[in-house]
Amino acid sequence: MFSKNFIKIEDVLINREIVETKFACDLKKCKGACCTIESDYGAPLLSEEISLIENSFDEAKKYLSSEHLAVIEKEGFHETRDGEIMTRSFNNRACVFVYFENEIALCSLEKVYLEGKTKFRKPISCHLFPIRISNFGGEVLRYDKFTECNPALIKGEELDITIADICKDSLIRKYGENWFKSLTDNSGN
Question: What is the pLDDT of residues 69-80, one digit of tens each?
């Protein structure tokens, strides 16, 4: 049963849902809900991402609202809760790095990266979404399900794209091209 539900690549366990579930973000329908889901917690951060965000902040802040900038000025862009580092959220909802374009929540860090103004795209936890990494004596990748992402399931079926497909760049960023090739070779698709 365990081996039927997981694929093991190097020391990482991957829930088969990641290679089997059809998923393609549909921002027109979800409006960037992953960046604005109501929660006391922001996006998980790695300690090494703090300085990368600090180096990108002068460019990214140009897209932020005065409310988000005020939170960052007063409290900083990250916090630690229960030993976990995470981005701060605005009103327990939007990540402080969110800006809106045509009513769609987008990441200011990613915007300046795509414009070629910085070298840091965004936190790996955000780039991997809807994949989440848990640690149970080793990394375990799982599909983090939200009803706000239901349109992505429909679009994924229409386009025949899986979570692994949509997260290819982020998985390669995190684990490398050879690792990703092993994942696709072992997915059974």
Answer: 999 999 999 999
